[in-house]
């Protein structure tokens, strides 16, 4: 049986939709709340594929590749060039990212996953990616293939679906414009820890000004809650409770019930190797974010944590969070990592 990989075309869409729906159902089986499937999932998948494969003006460069054997599709892999957030230097340019909505057919021959990953890597490198990232949720074969090809955990995404109804903890309040300078100071501490964990997060020289502008704008956005602890001149920490985006959730999933915590810092986990004060202050901010999600009718929280940030991971696990997704990194020669803390496996 001869197998090869090639770029997907619009002709493949009818065969790709059921394959990607199966992929979504496997995530749903792991956590039905976090990975809730949309009622019109097949239509959403088809729409996303058609846009990716036919639209001339796209916000990011995508790659859809398929495996094929004797005319039958054996699998699909989805990748993209990931835009560098404006607060980071991005010294190596936009990395390539293999996304979670990649799947193989039930009868795919051995080696299909590795062949698809190799094809995606070749496409991303040809597009100029010096750093390669992979996203993993389900399927031990995918995890094994990524590890075998030199990917190491970079970022963990932890989730909790029991948000409770306890309300906002005392000592945590809504942020105001007066809090922005304090949030920026704490964000700078956060960025310092991140860059110490891995050079991937090297801050941009204008990070403070860019983050201040974004926080000021965020105060006007009604789809999120900005929460802080402490007085404006002695801000203890901050957390932004915002809606989920398609970056982490493929189109088959209904993301209206999921909130994301990314911008989040408290000195309790400021030392990456050791949690201070039992994480009480940091946990209070997290519970406030959960209460904000619950008040908006959301049932799941999705929190970002670098794999090497031991104290933050410890705090999140103690708060009832489990790893739901892993982003791993593979570097080319010359793109070496900085010294860092413990790497999670």
UniProtKB/TrEMBL annotation:
- Known Gene3D superfamilies for this protein? 3.40.630.30
Q: What is this protein called?
A: N-acetyltransferase domain-containing protein
């Amino acid at each position: 049986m001869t197998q090869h990989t090639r770029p997907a075309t619009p002709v493949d869409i009818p065969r790709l939709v059921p394959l990607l729906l199966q992929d979504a159902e496997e995530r749903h089986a792991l956590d039905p709340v976090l990975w809730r499937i949309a009622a019109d999932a097949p239509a959403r998948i088809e729409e996303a594929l058609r846009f990716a494969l036919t639209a001339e003006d796209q916000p990011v460069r995508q790659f859809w590749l398929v495996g094929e054997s004797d005319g039958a599709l054996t699998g699909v892999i989805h990748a993209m060039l990931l835009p560098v957030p404006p607060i980071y230097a991005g010294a190596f340019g936009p990395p390539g990212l293999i996304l979670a909505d990649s799947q193989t057919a039930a009868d795919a021959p051995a080696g299909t996953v590795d062949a698809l990953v190799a094809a995606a890597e070749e496409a991303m490198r040809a597009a100029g990616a010096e750093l390669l990232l992979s996203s993993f949720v389900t399927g031990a074969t995918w995890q094994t293939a990524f590890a075998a090809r030199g990917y190491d955990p970079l970022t963990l995404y932890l989730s909790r679906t029991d948000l409770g109804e306890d309300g906002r903890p005392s000592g945590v309040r809504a942020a105001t414009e007066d809090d922005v300078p304090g949030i920026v100071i704490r964000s700078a501490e956060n960025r310092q820890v991140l860059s110490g964990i891995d050079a991937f997060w090297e801050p941009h020289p204008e990070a403070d000004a860019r983050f201040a502008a974004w926080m000021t704008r965020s105060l006007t956005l009604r789809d999120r809650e900005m929460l802080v602890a402490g007085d404006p001149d002695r801000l203890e920490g901050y957390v932004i409770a915002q809606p989920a985006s398609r970056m982490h959730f493929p189109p088959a999933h209904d993301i209206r019930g999921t909130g994301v915590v990314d911008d989040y810092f408290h000195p309790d986990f400021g030392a990456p190797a050791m949690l201070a004060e039992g994480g009480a202050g940091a946990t209070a901010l997290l519970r406030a974010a959960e209460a904000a999600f619950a008040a908006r009718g959301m049932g799941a929280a999705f929190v970002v944590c670098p794999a090497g940030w031991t104290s933050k991971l410890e705090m999140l696990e103690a708060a009832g969070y489990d790893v739901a997704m892993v982003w791993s990194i593979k570097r080319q020669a010359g793109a070496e990592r900085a010294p860092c803390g413990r790497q999670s496996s």
